[in-house]
Design goal:
The protein is α/β, with parallel strands linked by helices. The protein has a single domain, classed as Spore Coat Polysaccharide Biosynthesis Protein SpsA, Chain A. Helix content is 38%, strand content 18%. Strands 3-2-1-4-7 form a 5-stranded mixed sheet. A 5-stranded antiparallel sheet has the order 5-9-10-12-11. It has a two-stranded parallel sheet with strand order 6-8. α5 packs across α7. The longest helix is centred in the first third of the chain and has 25 residues. The radius of gyration is 19 Å and the shape is globular.
Length: 323
């Protein structure tokens, strides 16, 4: 029988998700082995856009259900959270959508058997170059991109075998039942210091460590598409969020080393693009009164901790020029 690969997508489908789907069709789907089935879960909205994917897979199964009503207790789980850019409600909904997608996966595999490879992605990602996906993932190993790690692991894209991915997609229950209660009991130990805060990437890192799941790099570049004042931008990886070198693996072949070097070369081009004219600061990071923004613009763009939004046309040019 042909190998079955599941591509799982979960989160909001935005007005510009057609651009993300086009990049997925160009740079992710062609590198997936065997017959690909796409499973998706989103809140209602822009349902017609998913039809863009149907001609490029064996089967397309998508569920649209309203968001759950979050309780006051759930929305109060923000002790020591990094609140500058991470919004607890958004984190909880992302984990909910991921869990709903995991149920679609379980239903599909109950009928068809476990997939040999499962890939999960948010549907608002722009894949800039062909993705680096293992054709035969190792057991108990998660493959994720080595950028935007933030003391944990990238939480917007990953791949692995069926069992490992089912475990990874249950992170919402882990946060509610295990991680946050532990944080309240001993925050300094959980966070690694009295001045530390947490974010979804950090929670994912804790979860994978507790589950004994190893992490290997998928040398894949992507950015989130964002719309600001009617213009489309790519939220590019942060210069302090790259981790091109994971723990050394003696099975790392010359081919993988070449892939790593290509990833780093492309990362350098992405970082250089963040300094060109037309780049703006992610509005979620701006903490100054609006009247000061224009005067502080050049200063803000030099601050290492601010996120840059690169005009989408610039990223398209970069995609065409980088090897």
């Amino acid at each position: 029988m042909p190998q079955t690969t599941l591509l799982c997508l979960s989160s909001i489908i935005r007005n510009f998700s057609n651009l993300a789907f086009d990049s997925l069709i160009q740079n992710l789907l062609p590198v997936l082995p065997g017959e690909v089935t796409i499973l998706g879960h989103s809140p209602p909205g822009n349902e017609a856009l998913i039809e863009r994917l149907r001609p490029h897979c064996r089967q397309l199964i998508w569920s649209f259900t309203p968001d759950p009503v979050l309780t006051a207790d759930e929305l109060a789980q923000d002790f020591r959270a990094d609140t500058i850019i991470n919004v607890l409600r958004n984190n909880l909904l992302q984990w909910h959508w991921l869990g709903a997608c995991a149920q679609l996966k379980a239903n599909f595999e109950a009928e068809h058997g476990p997939a040999r490879l499962v890939v999960w992605s948010r549907p608002d990602l722009l894949y800039l170059w062909p993705a680096d996906i293992p054709s035969t993932p190792r057991p108990r190993t998660l493959y994720t991109s080595p950028h935007d790690m933030w003391r944990g692991y990238n939480d917007r894209f990953c791949a692995g075998d069926s069992e490992t991915m089912s475990q990874r997609m249950k992170i919402g229950r882990y946060f509610q039942d295990v991680w946050y209660p532990s944080l309240l009991r001993d925050p300094d130990t959980v966070l690694g210091g009295s001045g530390r805060t947490w974010n979804p990437e950090f929670v994912l890192g804790c979860y994978l460590k507790e589950q004994g799941i190893q992490v290997q790099p998928s040398y894949t570049h992507f950015c989130r598409i964002r719309q600001v004042d009617g213009q489309l931008y790519g939220l590019t990886p942060h210069r302090r969020g790259f981790r091109a070198h994971f723990v050394h693996d003696p099975r790392h072949s010359d081919l993988r080393e070449a892939e790593r070097q290509r990833f780093e070369e492309r990362a350098s081009k992405l970082l250089a693009a963040q300094t060109r004219p037309g780049v703006i600061i992610d509005p979620r990071r701006i903490e100054h009164p609006p009247g000061l923004i224009e005067r502080l613009g050049k200063f803000l763009l030099r601050r290492d901790h601010d996120r840059r939004l690169v005009p989408l046309e610039r990223l398209r040019e970069l995609e065409a020029s980088a090897p």
